[in-house]
Amino acid sequence: MRLQAAIVGVLALLGSGGRASGAAGETAVGVVFHDANSNGRRDAGEPGLPGVRVSNGRQVVQTDESGRYQLPVDDDTILFVIKPRGWMTPVDELNLPRFYYIHKPRGSPALKYPGVPPTGPLPGSVDFALRPQEEPECFRVLFLGDTQPASIDDVNHLAHDIVEPLIGTDAAFGFTLGDVVSDRLELHDPVNRVIAHIGVPWYNVLGNHDMDYAAADDRHSDDNWELTYGPAYYSFDYGPVHFIVLDDVVWYGPTEDKKGYYRAGLGDKQLEFVRNDLALLPADQLVVLTMHIPIEQIQERKELLSLLAQHPHTLSFSAHTHITEHLFLDSRYDWPGTRPHHHINAVTACGSWWTGAPDELGVPHTTMADGAPNGWLMVTFEGTRYSVEFFPARRPADWQMAIYAPDSVPADQAGTTEVLVNVFAGSERSQVEMRVAGGPWVELKREPREDPYYAALKRAEEGERPPPGKKLPKIIKSPHMWVGMLPAGLRPGTYLIEARTTDMFGHVYCGRRLIRVE
Q1: CB neighbours of 304 closer than 8 A, spacing ≥ 6?
Q2: CATH at 413
Q3: Are 195 and 163 in contact (CB under 8 A)?
């Protein structure tokens, strides 16, 4: 019922009047207005706002001096306003932004999950409400990789592990980077109700597990998503930054001889939207893309990066792989820009799909296959600059690495004993150093390795007495592992190993481990 109410709520943003419609090739008209009393409706005396961008998912136009716009529509169109700086769209009771109008005169086809009910004739005026809000030059944004519950128990894990620590955050808003759920689309609503308690507007990215697999093709695979969240791709400004949310999952439905499958892609219509959206931006504005599948896997990667490279300040985020990784795209990835494009594959909120042994609260440790804990990212934006911080779930904020060395080392083997340091959010631009017993700092070498703790967890699962909980996924070589050697000549005794890392943003984190030399 709440999902149906969401559509009704969006329809309430419309002006009065009724034009006979339902056929392809019509033109929608409307006004973007200052909603002075924040009731979502245009009342007498509420002025239109000039220069505001509105889109039909392909074209992007700007409102005239009276706040009016017009755009072509067919019988499956979502119109949406592109929120400008200093203004905010309505949000519903679950902090989901309502910035769109769905035009499906005949509604969605019958699939496994409900789609959009028939919206009827195109209204005489499709109006969008905005209210002013303060948006400083410097602000913070929360990013959650896949929340991905497969059951209501997993929704509870999300609540305790991720959401409860974030209630009262100073972030301006947040994102979930796709796979909001794990195929069970009826869990979108419970997840939304949990996330709402964070207390800030929340934007969602479509993931491959958020689609209705009963759809024959990509066109209607997102219809249940549209019912809940609106368009699968869109954009908005906040402060000096322009955010673009992409739908980079293309669904190919099942056939008689083949199961359905997906690939990473955008399609011509979405690419045209991105092209038209970017064309109206100031050249020096920071552009931030959010998507589910990492950018290097997108079929139209070259075309997308070509558009992005026309802007000197860009950044992008994804999730999907359930590991943490920083990519710096250069010509090897078809990036035509002079400086590499920074793409961040974010830590997932669900870690390894809520697997692993549960703790005393019943929450699985859900360590990711790269040895990193689940958690979230907090990104600070200031003008065209940004900095990224990783936060582990329900652990101290400064727990940023794991140091691996034997508990005891024979004195004659100290100089040949490796020390591994897994810097959970480290990148090729991180510096990692180590010292022993207060000696000189020695720089470590970045070298992909399996995380020893995770390897031990996998061995335990295969042992005679496996731990409780769902099995963890297969181990990988962690892309954020550094390697060094203990110094030779250590005499018997207890020694402190210290490691420190300085990331590309200047954040410094430290870790410690005690060992015995015998």
Answers
A1: 266, 271, 274, 295, 298
A2: 2.60.40.10
A3: yes
For residue 474, which of 492, 450, 491 has the smallest C-alpha distance?
Answer: 450
- Do 416 and 478 fall into the same domain? yes
Nearest-angstrom CA–CA distance, 427 and 418: 21
Q: Convert 419-451 to b/e letters by CB count within 10 Å (16 or more is b).
A: bbbbbbbbbeebbbbbbbeeeeeeebebeebbb
**pLDDT (tens digit, 9 = 90+) per residue, 390-440?**
999 999 999 999 999 999 999 999 999 999 999 999 999 999 999 999 999
Q: How many CB atoms lie within 10 A of CB 118?
A: 10
Q: According to the model, what pLDDT value does residue 256 have?
A: 82
State the pTM of this model: 0.94
Does residue 152 sit in the same domain as residue 127?
no
Tell me, yes or no, whether 377 and 450 share the same domain.
no
Q: Verify that 292 and 212 share a domain, yes or no.
A: yes
Phi, psi (degrees; rounded to nearest 5) at 387: -145, 150
**Residue 232 domain boundaries:** 138-392
The sheet carrying 314-318 orders its strands as 234-238, 241-245, 286-290, 314-318, 341-345, 325-329
* CA–CA gap between residue 203 and residue 235 (Å, rounded): 10
502 beta partners:
431, 508
Cα(418)–Cα(445) distance, integer angstroms: 11
**120 and 142 share one domain:** no
Domains: count for the chain = 3
Could you tell me which residues are beta bridge partners of residue 428? none
Burial of 92 (0-12, 13-18, 19+ CB in 10 A): middle
Residue that is last in its domain, among 338, 369, 392: 392
Give me the percent of the chain exceeding a pLDDT of 70: 95
Q: Residues 6 or more apart from 417 whose CB is under 8 A from it?
A: 405, 406, 409, 485, 486
130 neighbors 87 (Cβ within 8 angstroms): yes
Q: Which tens digit of pLDDT belongs to each residue from 193-235?
A: 999 999 999 999 999 999 999 999 999 999 999 999 999 999 9
- Please give the backbone phi and psi of residue 103, each rounded to the nearest 5 degrees, phi first: -115, 95
For residue 385, what are the CA distances in angstroms to 380, 381, 497?
8, 6, 34
Tens of pLDDT, residue by residue over 43-96, are 999 999 999 999 999 999 999 999 999 999 999 999 999 999 999 999 999 999
In terms of domains, do 272 and 164 share one? Answer: yes
| Partners of 263 in the β-ladder | 250
3-state secondary structure of 30: strand
Res 24: pLDDT: 52
Helix, strand, coil % over all residues of the chain, rounded to 5:
20, 35, 50
Count Cβ atoms within 10 A of the Cβ of residue 167 and give its class: 0-12 exposed, 13-18 middle, 19 or more buried. Answer: exposed
CA distance 156 to 503: 33
Q: Judge whether 401 and 422 are in contact, CB under 8 Å.
A: yes
CA distances from 456 to 13, 25, 271, 353, 452 (A): 56, 61, 45, 19, 6
